[in-house]
Amino acid sequence: MTKIQLSNVSIDIPVYNSQGRSLKKTMMGIATGGRIGLTEKGGTIIRSLDHVTLEIKANERVGLIGHNGAGKSTLLRVLSGVYSPSSGTASITGKVGSLIDISLGIDSEATGLENIYLRAALLGISKKKIDRELDNIIEFSELGDFIRMPVRTYSSGMHLRLAFAVSTMIEPEILLMDEWLSVGDNKFQQKAEKRLSALVDRSNILVIASHSRELITKCCTRVLWLEHGKILRDGPPNEVCQEYFG
Fold first, then answer.
1. Average pLDDT, whole number, for the chain?
2. Is residue 14 domain-shared with residue 50, that is, in the same domain?
3. Does 142 reside within a domain?
4. In the chain, what percentage of residues exceed pLDDT 90?
5. Disulfide check for 47: which of 35, 88, 96, 104 has CB 3.0–4.6 Å away?
């Protein structure tokens, strides 16, 4: 069964060459929202997550709120397996798919066609599936003949349409997002919204970080409010958003 379980998870990020810079340390603490500390050997660390215990079950839609640096992105990276806990344990049961950086792996010197296969390989999508869906991807991205041109010749909108078309081919049981994706002009956004909503509906668990009250209350069944790497509140969207947004 699809499930996320964290027990007393902390993430400590080392900061090198920072000893003796007390003002800088203080400002870093304010800017990142993390807590400045020292290792046993006197090295500086920022605690991005601080003893987080959390359980997310199947069919839950969880929103993450909090100011920049509160720990939202760090938590998403733990769930995606990018970060391993410095202490505590993280148990993730189910296939994880991430839309945190949809342009990861795009090669500007390669053609759009080549990048479809490159990006798909990073996402764990088989070549056979891409072969079957290639025409649909090209049609959806609206790139036309540019699909055989180097990505460096693309506009930023063309680049995002290509990355979005490939990235949303994933079929995860656990879907991780850092804000809702909005790409292209109004006409394309309508297609993108429909495709993204279908992906969310297919996933068993959704975890999304956002600064949008409307999005959180619309999409989520539960909200976690993070502050300084800790879960300050965990509850229904309307209640937690009322406290956070006012």
1. 90
2. yes
3. yes
4. 76
5. 35
